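Second opinion, please. Pick holes in both lines of this record:
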Amino acid sequence: MQTSQNINPQTNRQQVIIIRQQKSVAVAFILSLLLGPLGMFYATVRGAIVMVIISVLMLLFVSEAGLIISWIAGVVWAIVAVKNTSTY
C-alpha cells in the first residue's frame, strides 16, 4: 500500500490518497472454489464471515446439498466483490 499526501491551498488541509494493489479475479475464484468461505477472505472479509455462518447453518439444518449451494454462492460473491473493488 502506498500513500501520497497533498496540501489543498484553499482549505489548508492535508489530503491523503491511499493506493492499493488490485486483487485478481482468478485468485479469488480459485481460493473460494478450493477453500469455500475461507477462501473468500481474500476478496471480502465481511462476506467471508457471513458465508462461514451461512455454510455452518446450512450444513446443520439443511444437508450437504445446502452446503454445496452456499459454497457456490460464496464463489460468485468472491468474484463479484473483487470486480467491484477493482473498478475504483
Notes: The helical segments are 25-35, 45-61, 64-86.
